[in-house]
Amino acid sequence: MVTILVPGALRTDSGGAGRLTVDTAGTLRAVLDAMDLHWPRLTRRIRDEQGELRRYINVYVDGEDCRQSGGLDTPVGKDAEVQVIPSVAGG
Protein backbone atom coordinates (compact mmCIF):
# COMPACT_ATOMS: atom_id res chain seq x y z
CA MET A 1 0.00 0.00 0.00
CA VAL A 2 1.24 3.45 -0.92
CA THR A 3 0.55 6.10 1.72
CA ILE A 4 -0.29 9.64 0.64
CA LEU A 5 0.16 12.39 3.21
CA VAL A 6 -2.31 15.24 2.69
CA PRO A 7 -1.63 18.68 4.22
CA GLY A 8 -4.31 20.49 6.19
CA ALA A 9 -4.90 22.98 3.36
CA LEU A 10 -6.07 20.17 1.04
CA ARG A 11 -7.96 17.97 3.48
CA THR A 12 -11.38 19.33 2.53
CA ASP A 13 -10.80 17.50 -0.77
CA SER A 14 -9.80 14.23 0.92
CA GLY A 15 -12.83 13.97 3.18
CA GLY A 16 -10.81 15.42 6.05
CA ALA A 17 -8.22 12.63 6.00
CA GLY A 18 -4.56 13.47 6.43
CA ARG A 19 -3.38 10.02 5.39
CA LEU A 20 -4.72 8.10 2.40
CA THR A 21 -3.71 4.73 1.01
CA VAL A 22 -3.94 3.26 -2.47
CA ASP A 23 -3.12 -0.27 -3.52
CA THR A 24 -1.12 0.83 -6.56
CA ALA A 25 2.59 1.29 -7.13
CA GLY A 26 4.86 1.70 -10.13
CA THR A 27 4.97 5.40 -10.92
CA LEU A 28 3.66 8.58 -9.36
CA ARG A 29 1.28 8.85 -12.33
CA ALA A 30 -0.22 5.44 -11.48
CA VAL A 31 -0.61 6.42 -7.81
CA LEU A 32 -2.35 9.68 -8.71
CA ASP A 33 -4.60 7.84 -11.20
CA ALA A 34 -5.61 5.41 -8.43
CA MET A 35 -6.16 8.30 -6.02
CA ASP A 36 -8.41 9.97 -8.61
CA LEU A 37 -10.86 7.06 -8.40
CA HIS A 38 -11.60 7.83 -4.73
CA TRP A 39 -10.66 11.50 -4.28
CA PRO A 40 -11.08 13.24 -7.66
CA ARG A 41 -11.33 16.73 -6.15
CA LEU A 42 -7.98 16.25 -4.43
CA THR A 43 -6.39 14.97 -7.61
CA ARG A 44 -7.63 18.06 -9.49
CA ARG A 45 -5.85 20.21 -6.90
CA ILE A 46 -2.60 18.33 -7.60
CA ARG A 47 -2.79 17.94 -11.40
CA ASP A 48 -3.88 20.40 -14.06
CA GLU A 49 -6.28 19.83 -16.97
CA GLN A 50 -3.51 18.15 -19.00
CA GLY A 51 -2.75 15.76 -16.14
CA GLU A 52 0.56 17.42 -15.25
CA LEU A 53 1.57 18.45 -11.74
CA ARG A 54 0.43 21.95 -10.91
CA ARG A 55 3.39 24.27 -10.53
CA TYR A 56 2.39 25.40 -7.04
CA ILE A 57 2.22 21.84 -5.68
CA ASN A 58 5.31 19.97 -4.54
CA VAL A 59 5.23 16.18 -4.36
CA TYR A 60 7.81 14.04 -2.60
CA VAL A 61 8.19 10.29 -2.91
CA ASP A 62 9.98 8.85 0.11
CA GLY A 63 11.42 12.30 0.82
CA GLU A 64 12.68 12.96 -2.73
CA ASP A 65 11.28 15.84 -4.78
CA CYS A 66 9.58 14.18 -7.76
CA ARG A 67 10.46 17.11 -10.02
CA GLN A 68 14.11 16.10 -9.60
CA SER A 69 13.52 12.37 -10.03
CA GLY A 70 11.27 11.96 -13.06
CA GLY A 71 8.11 13.96 -12.40
CA LEU A 72 5.03 11.82 -12.93
CA ASP A 73 7.30 8.95 -14.03
CA THR A 74 9.04 8.89 -10.64
CA PRO A 75 9.20 5.29 -9.42
CA VAL A 76 6.94 4.54 -6.45
CA GLY A 77 7.48 1.34 -4.49
CA LYS A 78 4.66 -0.69 -2.98
CA ASP A 79 5.35 0.64 0.55
CA ALA A 80 6.24 4.18 -0.47
CA GLU A 81 5.14 7.40 1.15
CA VAL A 82 3.99 10.26 -1.09
CA GLN A 83 3.82 13.69 0.49
CA VAL A 84 1.86 16.53 -1.14
CA ILE A 85 2.88 20.06 -0.15
CA PRO A 86 1.31 23.22 -1.60
CA SER A 87 3.75 26.06 -2.13
CA VAL A 88 3.45 28.88 0.33
CA ALA A 89 3.80 32.45 -0.88
CA GLY A 90 3.77 35.59 1.12
CA GLY A 91 5.41 38.86 1.63
From TrEMBL:
Q: Give one Pfam hit by family name.
A: ThiS
Q: Which domain of life is it from?
A: Bacteria
Read off the Gene3D superfamilies from this record.
Answer: 3.10.20.30
Protein's name in the database: MoaD/ThiS family protein
Q: Which organism is it from?
A: Plantactinospora solaniradicis
At the highest ranks, the source species' classification is: Bacteria, Bacillati, Actinomycetota, Actinomycetes, Micromonosporales
